[in-house]
Amino acid sequence: MMKPLVALITLLYTILLIYWMFIGFGRSQHLSGGYHYNLVPLKTIKMYMEYADKFNVRNWLVNVVGNVAVFVPFGITLPYIFRCRLLSMLMITVMGLVILESLQLTLRRGTFDVDDVLLNTLGVMVGFFIYRFGGLNGQRRRKRNVQSDSF
User: Fold this and answer.
1) One of this protein's Pfam families, by short name (predicted)?
2) 111 lies in a domain?
3) Which pTM does this prediction carry?
């Protein structure tokens, strides 16, 4: 009963994130100018760190901390729903993020930034370690121990 509920919540959360990536936060289609992208790993992150005092706090939090935080739930729920290991989950996550970032670029609803992929992936990894060393996985381990003790 718990797994279908977690899957439904994860699906709804995924839809919300896609909305945020393509429509939310005042995004509009960039019709003028060229495509905007960053293919240099850590370039944007480094810029945010070096010039942190030049950005308002909200911008910094959304672009650095937010890109990590919004993907933590996937690291918690995906291994629970699909019983996947870290490496396979990361491969699927990175492929999905590259596709979404590419869609943002081609639809001109944002930019392709390799650092977003890195930060989002870091969020998934943080969530996975929360899952692995507590969270839902811990509940399953306790449940197994109770079942084995009852035999």
Assistant:
1) VanZ
2) yes
3) 0.84
